[in-house]
Amino acid sequence: MNTTDPHILLADAAQRAADYLDGLKTRRASPDKTALERLNQFDQPLNDGPLAAADVLAELDGFGSPATMANVGGRYFGFVIGGTLPAALAANMLAGAWDQNAGLAITSPVAAKLEIVASRWLVELLGLPADTATGFVSGDTMANFCALAAARHAVLASAGWNVAARGLYGAPEITVIVGEEVHVSIRKVLMMLGLGHQRVVTVPVDGQGRMRADRLPDIAGPAIVCTQAGNVNTGAFDPVGDICTRVKNTGVWVHVDAAFGLWARACPSLAALTAGMEQADSWATDGHKWLNVPYDTGMVFTRDPRALPAALASEAAYLVDSGGREPWQYAPEMSRRARGVEVWAALRALGRQGLVALFERNCAQARRFAAGLREAGFEILNDVVLNQVLVSFGDDDTTRRVIARVQEDGTCWAGGTVWQGRAAMRISVSSWATTDADVDASLAAMCRAAGAG
Ligand SMILES: *Cc1c(COP(=O)(O)O)cnc(C)c1O
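Above: the input record for the complex with pyridoxal-5'-phosphate. Below: its predicted structure, written as tokens.
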């Protein structure tokens, strides 16, 4: 094989990728023992001489593909992990060939353009304020990071302090308010931003994990409230509209961590969950979860379009300012990959109706899981308002044993969690690839594992 001809090599890669996807229909949702043992075949000394690219690819496919988690297939329900849409995957392959540096408009006019277009579509789709600015980052943790960096800058600027120039030494204190169910990524971000994850004011939550707006403290001085739309366990939404109303005209910055919940705003049937959310100051979401674009992609949005550049941009003579939107001013990185390409492709391929259909279908499938498990005699621990289901199979030990058996069986994959003191299996339906037949096959496997039919 002439392995320097990109037509041959890339056709080989495309063929292997397509075969891999085909194989997922009948494959386990997780690698079997043999596949995991064969990973040791990668443990080789670095070769002295070069190896043909086709041989490198064959080795990767041979030992790597069987050892993957099959989250691109329809029967993976672990964490909150989406698959990847065919259009987004194909765009990713082409953009891989482009190898664009998406940091500056001058280093990639196409990446800069597609970010602007995707940003406009997202702001419309999600019903965010018209001037909202978007940053394309590696995931929701970094989206939270950028949003809270913007928040930190803005609330201190209002107090007469330029944190970009002077740092936090001697700065007025910022009160950071979170719910008891705050996601660990917000703690990580507070840590990275010098705001400290221990000095937060914590607001109690209700039985679904929603922050209780009536328990918000009185706030004076620079403050940030971190709300959540889509609890990782229950899928529940904080009453963001209520919270915004309570802090209106106080200068408090309201942030919404909406890693997967933000997409509910696209769906008329789910709109009630997100009521008033457009009043917040910033929103963070993932692309690689429910939008089903490849890793790693997230988006940060701020109401004030200057807020992200104020916190993230600096100057250097060699960085040409095109006078338009410069991607690096909306993200922590300078050089980075063109992740806006896949976001554009996913939105373009599905269109508004396709997006709504994806989110609504997954929610209906979550309800199908809940109904089937309830019918089999198991307890559903959450109100299934979105795509998340928590199920208990009895006492905590029993539930943990059933989860282990479900994972061993391999028909599907779901993980464990602890919800308000009780062990639970967590089912997250987040993939375009999941069919009702996948749900039914997975339900049957879960019931078998629990010894119920
Ligand atoms: C997944 C998730 C995050 C973290 O997102 P990453 O993409 O893993 O960085 C943060 N908050 C919530 C609510 C999440 O579900």
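Notes for the reader.
The domain at 353-449 is CATH 3.90.1150.170 (Aspartate Aminotransferase, domain 1).
The chain has three domains: 6-65, 91-346, 353-449.
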